[in-house]
Every structure is written in structure tokens, then in C-alpha cells.
Amino acid sequence: MDNIILIGYMGCGKTTLGIRLSYHMRIPFVDTDKMIEKNEGREISEIFAQDGEEAFRQMETRTIQTLLQEKARKVISTGGGLPIREENRQLLKQLGTVVWLKAEPETVYERVKGDTRRPLLQCEDPLAKIREMTVARSPYYQEAADVVIQVDGKDFDTIIQEMEGQIR
Ligand code: S3P
């Protein structure tokens, strides 16, 4: 399939960039977190609190399986933890071109500080947690990605240009 799938850590710009890219390419945009929230009728934070992270991860896998059944080309933004499961990385490969929006922990921190909707960052020292999770997750993102774009300090137009150059 020829979807464009955006992966990367929370706050790397997947959703904002995905919406821009979908306008630019004139194809629909979907976001796996939003699909799950709509399907469940609950917010991600409620799903984590009520059912736990593992249940949420299973919902993520089911969501990519659903997307694999759809034919229309799309830009797909994913939750930051989705590529961590091996099964999901395999499914992403089938779904289209996977783009890792790679961001330094400081960039992420600036974007997400004060955001209460991300359950994994509700802790004493979010920057330390972001650093730790970035190190732990990078090998998985790298493995899943067809294209890697370093996003720090770049505006969205520049990132889209780079992405198009690399996808072509
Ligand atoms: C998560 C990232 C979130 C959301 C959930 C878990 C993660 O998505 O799926 O809170 O494990 O990194 P965003 O990357 O869109 O914030």
C-alpha cells in the first residue's frame, strides 16, 4: 500500500505535520490515537487509567489492522509507542512508507510541557523521562522507518520538502 505513515516520539509534530501534508498531497489524514478515542468513546488518558497500557497497545494493533483493509491512500499519524511492538512494525511496513520524525528530547519537552493529556509524561521530571524513552525507543523507530527526518529547529514547509525529496 502507498500510505504515508508518520512515526516518532510524542511531541515530534506527527499530527500537525500530518494535517499539513494531507492538504499538500490532497489525500485524507487519519490519526491512530483519534481513531481509538472515537471507537472507544473515551480519551487516551481514560483508557490508560481504566484499562491500562497493555489494553491500549492491543487497540493500536487492531487499528493498524483496520487501516490495512482500507484502499484510499492516506497520511497516517501514529501514537508514539505504536512502533515498539514487533507485530506493529511488520504491519506498518505493509501499510506504506514509514517516516520517522526524529526530535531531540529538548525539542519534545518544549512542545509537551504542561500538556496533561499524555499519561506517560505525568511525572516528576518529564525531561528525564523523555530522554530515557528516546534512547529506549530510537532503535525501534529506526528499524520501522523507510525515511528519517531530523525535525529540530525546522519549520513545517522545510520538513515537508525534505520528506518529499526523500520519498521520491
Ligand atoms: C504514547 C503516545 C501518545 C499516545 C499515548 C502513548 C506513547 O501519542 O498514543 O499517550 O507511548 O508514546 P502521541 O505520540 O501522539 O502523543
Summary?
Helices cover 56% and strands 13% of the residues.
Alpha plus pi helix count: 8
Indicate the percent of residues in helices.
55-70%
What is the spatial order of strands in the main beta sheet? 2-3-1-4-5
The gross shape turns out to be globular
Rg over CA atoms, rounded to whole Å, is: 15 Å
Mean pLDDT: 95
Query: What is the CA-CA span between the terminal residues?
Result: 15 Å
Described by strand count, sense and barrel closure, the largest sheet is: 5 strands, parallel
Please give the number of β-strands. Answer: 5
Order of helices and strands: EHEHHHEHEHHEH
- pLDDT under 50 segments (min length 5)? none
Bound molecules: shikimate-3-phosphate
Strand content: 5-15%
Q: SS-based structural class?
A: alpha/beta
Question: Features of this protein?
Answer:
168 residues; alpha/beta; 5-stranded parallel β-sheet; 5 strands
Description:
The protein has 168 residues and is α/β, with parallel strands linked by helices. It has eight helices and five strands, in the order βαβαααβαβααβα. Strands 2-3-1-4-5 form a five-stranded parallel sheet, sandwiched between helices. Helix 2 crosses helix 4. The protein is globular, with a radius of gyration of 15 Å. The mean pLDDT is 95. Shikimate-3-phosphate binds next to loops. Shikimate-3-phosphate binds at residues 10, 14, 33, 44, 79-81, 118-120.
